[in-house]
Amino acid sequence: MAHQGYAGQRWLVEERDACGVGFIVDRQGRASHDLIQKALMALGCMEHRGGCSADQDSGDGAGMMTGIPWQLLNQWASTQGMAPLSETSTGIGMVFLPQDVAQAITARRVIETVLAEEGLKLLGWRVVPVYPQVLGVQARANQPQIEQVIFAANADPHPTEDEIERLLYLCRKRIEKQAKSAGLDELYICSLSHRRVVYKGMVRSEVLGQFYADLQDPAYQVKFALYHRRFSTNTLPKWPLAQPMRLVGHNGEINTLLGNINWMMAREADLTHEIWGDRMAELKPVVNPDNSDSATLDNVLELLVRCDRTPMEVLMIMVPEAYKNQPDLLEHPEIVDFYEYYSGVQEAWDGPALLAFCDGKKVGATLDRNGLRPARYVITRDGYMVVASEAGVVDLLEEEIIEKGRLGPGQMIAFDLETHEILKNWDLKKRVASERPYGEWLRQNRKTLHPQAFADRSLYDAPTLLQLETAFGYTAEDVDMIINEMGAQGKEPTFCMGDDAPLAILSSKPRLLYDYFKQRFAQVTNPAIDPLRENLVMSLSLSLGHRGNLLTATPEQAQLLRLDSPVLGDADLESIRQSGCQTVTLSTLYSIAEGPAGLSQAVEALCQQADVAVQAGAEILILSDRASQLTAETSYIPPLLAIGAVHHHLIRQGLRMKASLVADTAQAWSTHHFACLVGYGASAVCPYLALEAVRHWWHDARTQKLMETGKLKQTSLLGVQANFRKAIQDGLFKILSKMGISLLASYHGAQIFEAIGIGGDLLHTAFYGTASRLGGLTLADLANETLAFHRKAFPELSGKKLENYGFVQFRPGGEYHMNSPEMAKHLHKAVEQKSYDHYALYQKYLQERPLTALRDLLDFQSDRSPIDLSEVESVVEICKRFATGGMSLGA
């Protein structure tokens, strides 16, 4: 397969399992060059796991993180006339400087100024010896000037090693900000530490050791090395994007990345820590939306580690294992308590991942909850410990191996570089989980809302239900083929694959806002998961309430209301109001007197009301369009717009983490609707009108007749409502799984959709950050579509039953379908009768059809005359090498 690469080149890669990553450490704490040679050998064995350019040498990236090679640096210090460097106070920065000489000078000045302002003494710049001739054409064209800045901390008062690392983290963040302000886009600091140094580049793994002369120098002696070979999947190859990052090397994809970024940006307003005091602002922004998933995860990991946590604890928080229903954890309740506590504080960074990590004190690796990346380890008698994506990456004598194994789903292994102790999965997790009384905090503060009984009677009469369904955009197909079917069967209805109706933006029929959003799915190397066989690692649980400062662990952080399901009934909604959490209900109805412009004003007013309510202490906002207030003079803000707008407004105001959003809406009945609402910020949804439709269906005489004949197994009104909820829940599991996501809490706010036909004002108001490659629907357009539904219901119903627009099944006068009976008739007759006339009719039908897909908007323009058919390769020759795989994405 191929993907687009640097400067428009085609990057040719083989099918593979993505990046290769691992580490090697000397368990006796001996520094040696032999360890580097073994690490380079292991890295070379990862060559097949990375992408390579057409020039055969410009790789997606490879790199190595090691301890600081003091012998090598002391040789440099000697040439500078210096005394041997202090290993407790000297630091080193690996810097990619701009190619432009003038910019490089400016970049050095920025770095030196910041270091001096923070009390660090510059010892000098060391030009890193490299061999550019081994690089590929593209890598050489983009090669930065690579130098190391060497400095020392002041001796009086002498800071601890952790204090130096925190100071250097602050320095790097300041340098990055100043570089951006100065337009130094090419300045990149690979590492700035007195414990670690990173050598990396846009090279193949076999080339890394040839390019950096240091790695071949016998004086390069260290105690550990973490290595990584990159296969770029969601960003193009660049020198800075080669891994390892500052703390991790990552094999996999973070499928929830956009949501993680949004939530991290939302948390920034609340971030405080005694270590940083009033300097916290200098560390923000923590994440950059333009960075890769690995770099973004590394940014958050680094912040938490610099707030006096171990990388093992942070990764347990960010990439938790599937701890529910796991037999092994029955003996470790404190670990379960740890995960339960942080499930309400930090959503999981979810997706297939093997993470190798090192902060200079601990080096280790962990797997995601599904274990969808390989991770094997070997421990030898002569003192080595090797962890890697592959077995056999280092030549080891079998008789020297005293233990070998593999990490299972969610498991972790680490080595303490200070105590020389191997930390196995349960032991290290018990230590982390036992540091604080998480179980006691949960028992004292957290509440759980278990599903309540559904209503045992209908709330509206039949004419009122029909009026409300019409006003909220229900069609006969929605009720008969989706809602009633889910109530009867407890599962989503099954339709044929594909959708041959026009896109919502091209349709001549009124469409709901949900229809403009297409769900994304797992691609490249991040596989979908099976929601049936892998149900134990999946969960729909979410928490409501005020989520506090991520950087500190306090009992108050556990004061949340836990939901087992995001699908609420009326009794569930009332239980939330009575839960003790401060709850405010905001109406999403508005007067239509202002016409289409009124929707924009109503959304702005709703956001302001939410702002005021949260600042007044509201912990749960219920956005409700309860139909009892719907009249000829009032319409409703579409619930997806309401949720998205309030969600993003509160993020911009720094208030989002203080309150959860609940949608109490008539306009939600399919799994796609629920996925959209949760994906844009709702923690729960009460589909009150869909449940009412199920109740009416149950009381219908035809339904009762089906029961009597045994064709309907469900025998109670409460049971069919439970069926509806089960169908939505199972549908959500399916949606999560096709994106490779296990937890609804990680899907929450992740905006894993592509907007097709959403205009700029609407996108910015409620769906900021969503991929939208076209313009389209504006707020005024959406108001008109909503009012079109409303006018059919108020002041009087214009029909005696719901309209059938034929969105699913073709019907005369309904929505156009490309695979219509008329088209099929022409094609069948052309084939059966071998009639060119019928084929011509078939062609004419296709050419004159309404706009249906985006490709119908394209016109081909060419100034070239047609190519003679004799110049084209014959069909016979083409078929000899044709493969169905060639019909996949992009081909």
Detailed description of the structure:
This protein has 891 residues and is α+β, with helices and mostly antiparallel strands. The chain is built from 27 helices and 29 strands. Strands 9-4-10-3-15-14-16 form a seven-stranded antiparallel beta sheet, covered by helices on one side. Helix 14 crosses helix 21. It is globular, with a radius of gyration of 30 Å. The relative contact order is 0.10.
Keywords:
16% strand; disordered N terminus; 5-stranded antiparallel sheet; 891 residues; 29 strands; alpha+beta
Secondary structure topology:
Elements: E1 2-4, E2 10-12, E3 20-26, H1 33-44, E4 62-67, H2 70-79, E5 90-97, H3 101-117, E6 120-127, H4 137-141, E7 145-153, H5 161-181, E8 188-193, E9 196-201, H6 205-211, E10 224-229, E11 248-252, H7 257-267, H8 293-305, H9 311-318, H10 333-343, E12 353-358, E13 362-367, E14 376-380, E15 384-388, E16 401-406, E17 412-416, E18 421-423, H11 425-433, H12 438-445, E19 447-449, H13 462-471, H14 476-489, E20 517-519, E21 542-544, E22 561-563, H15 570-577, E23 583-587, E24 589-591, H16 597-615, E25 620-624, E26 634-636, H17 639-652, E27 660-664, H18 671-679, E28 682-686, H19 688-699, H20 701-708, H21 717-738, H22 744-747, E29 753-755, H23 760-766, H24 779-793, H25 821-832, H26 836-847, H27 875-880
Parallel strand pairs: 19-22, 23-25, 25-27, 27-28
Antiparallel strand pairs: 1-2, 3-10, 3-15, 4-9, 4-10, 5-7, 5-8, 6-7, 11-12, 12-13, 13-17, 14-15, 14-16, 17-18, 20-29, 21-22, 24-26
Helix pairs in contact: 1-6, 3-5, 8-9, 10-11, 10-12, 13-19, 13-24, 14-19, 14-21, 16-17, 16-24, 18-21, 19-21, 25-26
